[in-house]
TrEMBL record:
PANTHER family: SODIUM-DEPENDENT PHOSPHATE TRANSPORT PROTEIN 2B, SOLUTE CARRIER FAMILY 34 SODIUM PHOSPHATE , MEMBER 2-RELATED. Pfam families: Na_Pi_cotrans, PhoU. GO terms for cellular component: plasma membrane. Residues 365-444 form the PhoU domain. This is Phosphate:Na+ symporter. Keywords: Cell membrane, Membrane, Transmembrane, Transmembrane helix. It is found in: Cell membrane. GO terms for molecular function: sodium:phosphate symporter activity. It is a multi-pass membrane protein. The lineage of its organism: Bacteria, Pseudomonadati, Thermodesulfobacteriota, Desulfuromonadia, Geobacterales. It comes from the Bacteria. The keyword RNA-binding does not apply. One of its GO terms (biological process) is sodium-dependent phosphate transport.
């Protein structure tokens, strides 16, 4: 086994992985925001969910990554367990498109695709052409890397030592399934794992039947990887992962029990069935098939497709049953105190900026809703001071601080990824938004502190002062609500004039309240302590308004 062959195989694997990544980035950029809108509108229709899961796997060129993202959606409460199972089953079918593409093994196409991709990336000024260049460059690297990988593995597969070890390791069909699962778990991409299995089978390193078993085992590796995604996750996310593992395990066991029939089905739908027969695969488990690499690749790709179709047809109608069963067999969520940690952010998708920014938007929206809830809870304390509400507002403030830190760190990491111009502009906007939301929280906490001092010092405001504070709070909550709605993605051009009008109203109220306040102090209707506290509350409201207006203004400047 010469070292040059091993070096060629490893280099080919590296080019193959780079090609898959580049092609995936090109697809994501070409799709733009359209697929994000589809993800955010997953319905309870199991067939629509499976279709969206297929699209997600095609976009990412990996059902492993897609599965982790789906678990993240469940963890964040974006989709239900029922919806998630449909999407997860669909990801396997979507990944088959990438596998079928890999099976073409068109080296003749590789070099023109690489050349076209480089030319488009180097000389085209249109953004869409740049993305198409990524797609072509990635496709060319995939084909070229596969050829190098197979050529490097051929001498390794011919080694007597390697053949002896291979025969011993693959003596039991279940070991092939387990190796396929482990390979997928280690590589963290079933598309890449399939490419490696195709190369191993085409080079003679493993026989055809074991190659099919390894393809079947990939689903276990994908399902097992989702378990790692549920560490520190919600009970719903853990239930989803456990059910996905259960479904995958059932699909693998049923396939192994009917393995000869499964192989016959693969041969039946594949070209040149006279070259690779079902009898040869089933009876000569140690035989190396002398067939063209492209033919072996197509059979293995078809095995991948048939297995996933079988899984969807069998288990998609049963996801309602699995969902209901999990409610009795696995623990559910328990209501309790507010959890300050992020719900939407998943650091595993940093390398997928489109999805990472979608998560950051959702987390920022959640942060804004928390700030708005804080404001409403605090305003209720003017009428009746409640220590329970004070405790709740303090928890919400802690949540704002944690979200401010984590969203900012998340966005900084996303900014270090390759981004188009639109997303590069959006990241500073989101960072500025979370900064303003955190400052709004500080302003609300200042009001809470003043109200606590008012309660503890037994300070009373006059009826006129309370009426003025009510008017000020109404104007402030209006602009804060507008800011949170604006952060949610509204594009109404009239929002900024409305916000400016509300800000001007708050400024006029501030001046009026200060004048009236001084007159009440001169007339002896207000104590000095009450006057100082009253003035501090007015200033806090003004700062909250300024930060809310800044959120709306920065959003308008981007649009």
């Amino acid at each position: 086994m010469p070292l040059s062959s091993l070096s060629e195989a490893l280099g080919g694997l590296g080019l193959f992985i780079l090609g898959m990544k580049t092609m995936s980035e090109g697809l994501q950029r070409i799709s733009g925001e359209r697929f994000r809108f589809a993800l955010e509108r997953i319905t309870g229709n199991r067939f629509a969910a499976a279709l969206i899961g297929s699209g997600l796997a095609v976009l990412l060129q990996s059902s492993t990554t897609a599965s982790v993202i789906v678990i993240g959606f469940v963890n964040a409460g974006l989709i239900s367990l029922y919806q998630a199972l449909g999407v997860l089953l669909g990801t396997g079918l979507g990944a088959t498109l990438a596998v079928q593409f890999i099976a073409f093994q068109s080296t003749i196409f590789a070099f023109p695709a690489i050349l076209a991709g480089v030319l488009l990336r180097s000389f085209s000024k249109k953004r869409r052409n740049l993305y198409i260049g990524d797609l072509l460059l990635g496709a060319g690297l995939v084909f070229f890397g596969m050829r190098l990988l197979e050529n490097g593995l051929i001498p390794i597969g011919q080694s007597a030592v390697i053949q002896g070890v291979s025969t011993h390791v693959f003596s039991w069909r279940g070991s092939s399934v387990l190796i396929g699962a482990i390979l997928t778990l280690l590589i963290q991409s079933n598309s890449v794992a399939t490419g490696v299995i195709i190369a191993m089978t085409g080079s003679g390193l493993v026989n055809f039947g074991d190659g099919i078993a390894m393809i079947v085992g990939e689903s276990l590796g994908i399902a097992a990887f989702t378990l790692f995604a549920t560490i520190n996750g919600t009970p719903a996310a853990k239930r989803t992962a456990y059910l996905y593992v259960t479904i995958s395990l059932l699909a693998v066991v049923l396939t192994l029990l009917a393995f000869p029939l499964f192989v016959k089905a693969v041969v039946l739908v594949s070209p040149d069935r006279d070259t690779i027969t079902a009898d040869l695969v089933n009876t000569l488990s140690s035989a190396r098939l002398m067939a063209p690499n492209s033919l072996v690749a197509r059979h293995l790709a078809n095995a991948h497709t048939l297995f996933n179709i079988f899984s969807i047809v069998l288990f998609l109608p049963l996801i309602g049953f699995f969902t209901r069963s999990s409610l009795f067999t696995l623990p559910g969520a328990r209501k309790g105190d507010i959890e300050p940690r992020p719900q939407f952010l998943d650091w595993r998708v940093i390398n997928t900026p489109m999805l990472a920014l979608m998560q950051a938007r959702n987390e920022t929206r959640r942060m804004g809703e928390t700030a708005l809830a804080m404001f409403h809870e605090t305003m209720q304390l003017f009428n009746r001071f409640d220590t329970t509400k004070v405790s709740l507002v303090r928890q919400q403030e802690e949540q704002l601080d944690v979200l401010h830190r984590d969203i900012s760190q998340f966005l900084v990491q996303v900014s270090r990824q390759p981004l188009d111009a639109e997303r590069s502009m959006e990241i500073p906007l989101l960072i500025q938004t979370v900064n303003n939301l955190e400052h709004m929280g500080d302003g609300i906490m200042a009001v809470l502190t003043y109200l606590t001092n008012k309660k503890e010092s037994h300070i009373l405001f006059s009826n006129e002062a309370m009426d003025e504070l009510k008017r000020l709070s109404d104007a402030t909550v209006a602009i804060v609500t507008l800011a949170i709605a604006e952060d949610g993605g509204g594009d109404d051009g009239d929002l900024l004039p409305t916000a400016r009008q509300l800000k001007d109203e708050v400024s006029l109220l501030e001046e009026l309240m200060h004048r009236n306040h001084v007159m009440r102090m001169r007339g002896g209707f207000c104590s000095v302590d009450a006057g100082l506290l009253y003035g501090d509350i007015i200033v806090a409201f003004t700062k909250i308004t300024d930060h809310a207006y800044a959120i709306i203004k920065s959003r308008r400047e981007l649009l």
